[in-house]
Fold each of these.
Amino acid sequence: MAGELKGFSLASLKQDNPFIKLIQRTLNSYLKTANQKVESIDIQKVKRPSGVSVVPVDFVLTGQQTLTLLLRADGDVYRAQINGKDYPFTGVLNPDSSDLFGKAIKELVSGIIKGQIAYTKKLEKESSSILQPKINANRTPPKNVNQQIKANADEELQLDNEIEKLAAERDALKAKLESA
C-alpha cells in the first residue's frame, strides 16, 4: 500500500498521521446524516493479540460511541470494533482505492448508526440503575458496632416473623390440599 501509507509506522503513529486524518475526514462526512462526528482520536500502545502487532485507534463519536480500528504494521486494518464489540466488515480501508475505501467507511458508519439506538438504551439503563434508591435508602446506616449488632438483630427478628407467617400459610395450604 503506497500513497497515504508511505512511511507508516506503528511505534510513531500519531493523530496527525495522514491515514488517520483521512479516516477521520471520511467518517465525519458520512456521519453528518446521523448528526454525529468524530470528537476525539485515541491512539493506544502497540498490542499483540493473536500474534499480530497492532495499534488500537479509537475514534470517539459525539454520541459517546467508539469505533476502534486495529491497524497492522503495514497500515492494514486487522479488525474493527464498534462499542467494544467486533464488527465484521468486508471492505478494505485502502486509501489508494477511493471506491473501496469509501465503501468500507460506509459499511462501518452503517454499523455505528444501527447500533446507536441500542447503545443509547444501554447507557440509559446503566445510568438509571445507578440512580435507583435501594430499599432502605431513607434509613441512616448504623454508626458503630453495637448499633450494627442491634440493627442486625432487629432485621433477624423481622425475617423470623416473616418465615413463621409463611410457614403457617404453607401448612394451611397443605391441610386444605389434603382435605380436598
Amino acid sequence: MPNVAQAEPQSSTTTIFRVLLETRGNDPNIWVATCLENGYVATGLGYDEARDNIIDLLRTEVIYANENGRKLGTRATIPSALEQKWKILGPSDELCDLGFPTFLGIMAKHFPALTYSRERANYARFKLTNQNPVDPQPLTYPIQAREQGTIVGYEQIYGLLDCFSIDVQDFRDAFNSHYKLTSPVET
C-alpha cells in the first residue's frame, strides 16, 4: 500500500494536503510524491527526500499565493499524464529524468509560450508568457529539482506538460533537437 504524508504549511490558517508517496516502478531508490489536491509532483532520492521536497514545494507555493493575494490553484486530482504512466508504453514513449539546466534550456528554446522564474537554485515556476500579471488565478506550475538541484524527474515533466496542455511528442521532438538526435531513415 502506498504511503500518504500530510503537509501542513505554516500560515495564519492551516491547510492540509494529502500526498501520495510511492517508489518509481523502474527505480526503487527514487520516490515520487504527488499532491492529491492540486497535482504538484516532486521526486527524491529516497522517501525522506521526496517527502521533504513536496512539503517545501507546497509551502513555497502557498506562501507565494498568500503574498500575492491569490489562492493556490487546483488543476486535477492527479494529472492525466501521471495516470498514463501506469499503462504499458513502448520504450521510446517514456520521457527520462533530465538535468535541471538542460530542462530549463529546452523549455526556453522550444516552448516560447512559456516562461519561468527561478525562485531558488533548485526551483523554477513556469507560467504562460502572455499571461496577464494581475490575473487573480494565474496558471503556474512549480518544478523543484532533486539531488541538490541537479535533476528534474520525468514525473514533473509530465505534470508540466499536462498543466499547459503541451503534447508529449512536442517535448520529445524538442529533446531530440536539443541532443541532435534523428530517427532512423526508413528504406
Amino acid sequence: MGRYYYGMIRGKFWFGVQESNDASYFKEGSYDNKAKPRYYGCDCPITDETQLYCAVHFPNYDGHYNIAKLFLEDEFKKITLPFLLKDPNHEICNYQYHFYKNELPFIQSKLKSLEKQLGKQFLENINFKIPNPNDMQGMEYDYNINYVNKYEENKEKLALIARWCLGKQIEYAIIHKGECNFICEIG
C-alpha cells in the first residue's frame, strides 16, 4: 500500500518525504476531488468498472479473487460470482498533470536548480536510467544506497532527491514522446 503516480510515467512516492503534488514544483496540476474506487488486494484504481479484476497485477479474475478474499473472508461468503473486486472503504482523489514539449526548457531549469541544491556528490551517486526505452512505463532511477542512507535523517534532502527523480521522468517522457501526462494519488 502507498501512494502512486501512473500514466505515461509511473512510480511510488517516497514514503514520509514526498507529497502527492510534488510535480507542482515543475507545473501546477489540477486537483480531482471526485473519489475513485480501488480494487481489493492490490489497491489499484478502478478506471473501468466492466473490468472485474486488476489486469495490471493479476493474469485473470480467479487469481485476483483468491487474493482479495483473504482480505474479507466473511464478506466473500455472501456474494455471487463474478463481481467487481472493488473495495468500498478505500477510494482516492488525485492530482492530474499535463506537460508539453514547449515547457521542457523550464522543467530542465528546475532540474538544474535541484542539482545545484543537491551538489556535485549527488550527481556522482545517482543514475537515472530507462531499463527499456520502448516501454514508457519502465522508467526508473538507481542510486548508491549508502549515499542516500546518509541522508536518512535529513528529510529535506531526501525530498529534493525524490523530486529530482520525478522531474527526470517527466523530462525523459517529454523528450521522447513530446508530452508527459500522469495522475498522482492522494491519501
